[in-house]
Amino acid sequence: MKKLKVILLILLYVFVGQLSAQQKTYCNPVNLDYAYCPIPNFTTWGKHRATADPVIVNYKGDFYLFSTNQQGYWWSSDLSEWNFVSRSFLTQEAIDTTPNKWDDLCAPAAWVKGDTLIVFGSTYSRIFPIWMSTDPKGNEWSKAVEHFDIGGWDPAFFTDDDNRFYMYNGSSNVYPLYGIELDRNTFQPQGTRKELLLLDDDKIGWHRFGEHMDNTFLKPFMEGAWMTKHNNKYYLQWGGPGTEFSHYGDGVAIGDSPLGPFEHVSLPLSMKAGGFIRGAGHGATFQDNWNNYWHTSSMVVNVKNNFERRIGIWPAGFDAEDNMYCNTAFGDYPHYVPNGETDHLKSRFTGWMILNYNKPVQVSSTLGAFYANNIVDEDMKTYWSAKTAEKGEWLITDLGEESTVYAVQINYADQDAEFLGKTFDKYHQYMVYYSNDGKKWNTLIDKSKNKKDVPHDYIELDKPVKARYLKMENLHMPTGKFAISGFRVFGFGAKEKPSPVKQFMALRGDQTDRRNVWLKWQPVDEAYAYNIYIGLEPDKLYNCVMVHDVNEYYYSGMDKTKPYYFAIEAINENGTSTWVTAEAL
Fold first, then answer.
1. pTM above 0.90?
2. Helices (H) and strands (E) in the chain, counts
3. Per-residue pLDDT tens for 527-571?
């Protein structure tokens, strides 16, 4: 029996290896040359990279990504390799009259009208135009509208099947989301804005503000509208309840017309409350060249400033009953990029596991309390820093046993960074080696001649290698110290998957607050983490939270009027266990 398991495991490795050779992968957070925060008052705790509020549109078969204050935008043919186009969208009038010159394109909207790509940034000032282009790769832009008088913060635009045209906007913890019809050609309003949607945090727990969804000191925020139409239903998406927190996500409300009325879905559309990097709010839904849906949104760092964020992309779609979903399970592990029509309910996860979680680490030097173990603790909020940025600073991660390595993600941290705003001609250079005995080293990754800025460099190996130790050696940093928040090694260990969880319980709050549930289970000895799946029906568990080194989880996000269903799987270096279920009626 044991020999049969070994044979099956070898066949699995061969199959995954063949699949990998055919399909390219990516890993969140997306590896972009993020600009540094341009606002001096937001960098008093340290200069750092930051962006959020992404929108991706498919224009002529390529993907165009716009996000807050990047002094340009990116395009990609495959959602993996991104090319930056430098562009200021501020007019001279705006530069001369606005004190916030860093708000070049804040929380932007982007959409396609015929053969034209159109972009508009958040503003209630008439000095910011609506821009259009038929050659965005060539950075050729002109003004579609010189002065869009009604403006809108966190705007989104939507063209219905009958060619009627709408704008949605709103960002507040007091006021609702708004919608209005516009003239398709002149962009002039047709009537006045209509109130569309408010939060319902007294009923739906995940609408509550705060890291623990408790509204401790503020009421919840609602922002970042987006509209998707499917089977004659209108899915109004929004970000909330606070961009600073792990449970920041995108909700969805459904209506029969583009201006409502809309009814909240009790589950978030996109939620990523656990794992290496958390958060999945204020985003946009788009389709690839095979009409598969994807969702992009902001991810939370929130160390040097509350608005320190990154960007993630996840498979999304609609099930047979037209429920909209976003699959964030293993949402910061390697996923396959689009390559054909597929079922996103089955995710695009490669199956490659983290091989070095909380394993031994050696480093060349340590700055203050930025300890070496932070490299492998699966938490982007913590990081190790060397004392210098000099060539030759290094780290070694021990996988604990010889394992099969498929990919590596290197996440740099901004320790003593010097820049504000967008920088050019900056780059990282390094080498990665592998070894089975920690003495004889072979080259795994050679970035000694790299000239790109790669703050979240993700490298899928051409062929998997067998290794126990990996060593990274710094050659050049663009700014600051040599600092790493996560040196993440993906692949398969040499042992068996974990056993299923036992005694999984969902203990729901009593009548005083049925929005809360305490999930608890017997620990699995060989597991380093667990995925908890959450849903409103037993076979539709569309939300997922990954937790490490615990055997309990408090979830305060339920609708107090509805039953909830849960499943849990144990995770280790070799894969996942089968699911075990529980319910909170």
1. yes
2. 2, 38
3. 999 999 999 999 999 999 999 999 999 999 999 999 999 999 999
